[in-house]
Amino acid sequence: MHTPCIPRTSPTARPWQRAAATLTAATLSSALLSACGSTVVNPVTGEAERSVMDEPAEITQGQKAHQQVLKEQRAYANPKVQAYVNTLGQKLAAQSHRANLAWTFTVLDSPEVNAFALPGGYVYVTRGIMAYLDSEAELAGVMGHEIGHVTARHGAQRATRQQNAGLGVLAATVLGVVLEGAGVRGATDLAGQVSQTAAAGYVASYSREQETQADELGAEYLARNRYDPRNMVDVIQVLKSQEQFAADTARAEGRQAPSGNNWLASHPSNAQRLADIRTIALQYQTPPTRYDDDGRARYLQTVEGMVFGDSREEGVVRGPQFVHEGLGMALTAPSGWRVRNGSDAITLVNAAGDAGLVVTVLPPSAQGSHEDLLRQLLKANQNRVEGNLDKRSLHGLPATHFDGVVRNAQGAATAVHLTLVDGPLSRRYLMRHLGRDAAALQRADAPLREAEASFRAITPADREAARPWVIKAVPFPKGGFAELARSSVLAAFMPAAQAEGQLRLMNSAYGQDGTDGAGHIAEPKVGQMVKTIGR
């Protein structure tokens, strides 16, 4: 994507990272590769602009990329939620500047807090962002913002800007679409894989002006549909609170706070967006306007029972435990370590963030003896190998560990510690001990071996832990969020303060900006329906 329209809070890249390798030149029509472009009229501004992508091309490329999205990310298998979001989206789009498009709205089965759009009228929201919104009007704000990117032709402008930078339309489209789905870490990883890093970063983001325009259009589309545009303020506050919660949690765990949106300076911070959208929303309050109900009750009924957090299909993190029912395996992180569930690997990371165990599934073609496979892996690219093999058993699963040094063709030496294990369901896994440097690796040696030794076939207890968490709507208790947290499933997997903060975040009551103006955190009234997490 550009910077994520709705930035993710999780640092873990998801399957969208793989889209960079699968989207090819065939994805784009030959017309898009033309150097001259054509003049089109922007539907929002009414101004003529040169573009390498006219409306038919937008529609064609949107259709192709939409199919790629659905290959890389599953649509959420809940007809009630899909129908609700589509109905709301069609209502908003009908009042937009491009009502003529055949709009498509999809909820993706992802825990990430994200939303994005493709040219031609394809809009996506994740179940992850829906968990943190508090009303239909807030969801309309998110979708209105994404509709605004489409109506103002920001994707086509990005492709044109990329061509002007001399790197070609293909790079613009691939980077723009892939990064939009991958989030901050996905963008960082991908940027490191291309040679024109600066240009990739330039094009991967929507400009500050484009983001502001999308916010303005979101507010306008809310007003046209009789939702109070001030709900756009609430949406941006959700994102700002996400950043604060992530920072507070990191500090409580002794980690460095995430850097937020600073990875691309062209993207306005959520603090700046919050200030801007407050100013925009005020324009719709004079003269005083009466807006319809924000649809909070309808919204809570819709998200009731929706999966929260990790899904069984991707594997779930439950405190220090990682359980993947589909693969039939589980791991446990050492005390103080964290589990990161990525698209291509599971990583158990120490508190300092300078060492970890990276676990990957080998392809079915990885046949033969452990010794032969390790020899193939270690001696690739004419490497010379010095070290020892050690036969092991991990909870009854055959394994072989290698400790040694690998020298490349130039003679440079790298210490290597890895284990090959025959896992459940005839799948093989490679576990690598990685550190920032030799000293970090040495300090983490004992917990790394402990983490590796935890690899196992799932047990009945693991299977029970992997049961999905779901959103539930319950009356707010007299004991406030502390009581709500104690009665939620979160209480068994995280500290009380973190569990309470998580539920505050889900109910728009987290952080200093959620105060009542007198320095007190705003809380729901006793008996008011709120969201919690159960099974």
From TrEMBL:
One of its GO terms (cellular component) is membrane. InterPro entries: Mito/Outer_Membr_Metalloprot (IPR051156), Peptidase_M48 (IPR001915). One of its GO terms (biological process) is proteolysis involved in protein catabolic process. Keywords: Hydrolase, Metal-binding, Metalloprotease, Protease, Zinc. GO terms for molecular function: metal ion binding; metalloendopeptidase activity. Residues 79-280 form the Peptidase M48 domain. Transmembrane segments: none annotated. Its cofactor is Zn(2+). This is Putative Zn-dependent protease. It comes from Aquabacterium commune.
